[in-house]
Amino acid sequence: MAQTYFLVMVLGLPLLLLLIALLAGHLYREGPEELLDWRPTRSLEKEAELEHGEVQQMLSALNRYRRARGAPERSLDDVTERAWAGFER
Predict the structure, then answer these.
(1) Residue 57 and residue 60: Cα distance in Å, rounded?
(2) Contact criterion met (CB below 8 Å) for 70 and 60
(3) What H or E segment, with its residue span, contains residue 78?
(4) Are residues 87 and 47 in the same domain?
């Protein structure tokens, strides 16, 4: 009897809670963003600006190392072209 009670509590209760949560989520019509009260922290435009800035920083660092070695600098188009060439193989 004690083993049955233990199994019901350890396995059955979490399973029941999970099923209730899934059912409530399925019946909620507003969508998961509204349910969780989730809002993006930054706009898509701000994310694009930050991404562009990061790419420029990486390209600057790459060119700084290339200048130190005496190699010619590379443009964003050169790097992009070489990256796409690697995917086409």
Answers:
(1) 5
(2) no
(3) helix 76-87
(4) yes
